Amino acid sequence: MKLTIKRINRFCLILCAPFIGFVIWLMAADKSITLPDSAFPKLALPQVNVPSDLEKLTSGLDQAKQTALVTAKSLKKSIGIYSTTGKSMDAIVSITIAQADRPYRIYDRRITRKIGAPAQQIESGNVRAQLFTIHAQHFNGYALKVLLKTPKSMKMVLGHDKSGGAETTLAAAKRYQAIAGVNAGGFADDGGKRYPLSTTVMNGKYLNGFDPSFKDLFFVGLNDKLKLIGGKYRSKAHLDREKPRFGASFVPVLLQGGVPQPIPDRWRLSPLRAPRTVIANYKDNQLLFLVIDGRNENGSSGATLMEAQLLLQRYGAVDGYNLDGGGSSTLVFNGRVVNHPSDGKPRPVPTHFLFFK
């Protein structure tokens, strides 16, 4: 067995001897073996220029930074311009409003000066009510100038809120918590009750139907735009076109378009002088009420209707209407009766104009 292995080893050594000798010769002769390129497969590797790419990336980041800075500055500038523009627009709007309101203020000062300085004034978001005193040769009285700002500022009410009911203007004002009140239209007594005279409108509805104007009667009230409407109406359709919110009737018409209207002898002479209540308006739709005092209804004091016309003209009114007078004439302001009713105390009447703060 050992012999066999030795023989095999010798045989292998003999076989390898030439190769071993050849390698030893090559090493001794400093020779090298070069293999052809075909001996190795070619691999397609990407060529990356690292310094160039990093340079481009850095340049791009710098450019983005500069763009962001420019954009930030532009936004800041735009915000500043917007803020300045907003303030400028607010200023322009304020100036425009002030300029638009200027003619009204000039007109209001002019008509107010004609009446005098207000003795009292109440103003709110709904209304401005100014009370003036009147001193004439034959009578004393009061003027109430009212600017209505909203539909809530004025209404007409019935005595005790029912047809046939009557109460004093002071009682009605207190019941409704009104800041001011004036007696309204005429009335007729029937069976211990007092009914409004002729056509009467409450909350846009006819209280007892429509009565065509006859003789010296007229209708006066406010429409849905808070404008004074009044005159003689021959048909319901005629009055409906005016869109009345409320109103009452009495006699006679005093002023139309600033022009005094003829006063029938019946009302001009009987009585000649008496306590009076008058409603009128201005070009800017402010209302003017005159309440004239008188000691009695026998003509010894009070104003004539022609004197009432002269006062309306002097104060710059446009249209004017005579309301119920005599003992009915009552002006309530800020919780009290400011005039001196000729009955010695306020008279219960069926209709009242009230004003609200």
Automatic annotation (TrEMBL):
Keyword Transmembrane helix: yes
Pfam families with a match to the protein in the record: NAGPA (PF09992)
InterPro entries xrefs: NAGPA (IPR018711)
Residue intervals of the Phosphodiester glycosidase domain: 177-356
Gene Ontology MF terms: hydrolase activity, acting on glycosyl bonds
Swiss-Prot/TrEMBL keywords: Glycosidase, Hydrolase, Membrane, Transmembrane, Transmembrane helix
Sequence intervals crossing the membrane: 12-28
Alphabetical list of PANTHER family matching this protein: N-ACETYLGLUCOSAMINE-1-PHOSPHODIESTER ALPHA-N-ACETYLGLUCOSAMINIDASE
Descriptive protein name: Phosphodiester glycosidase family protein
Protein species of origin: Paenibacillus montanisoli
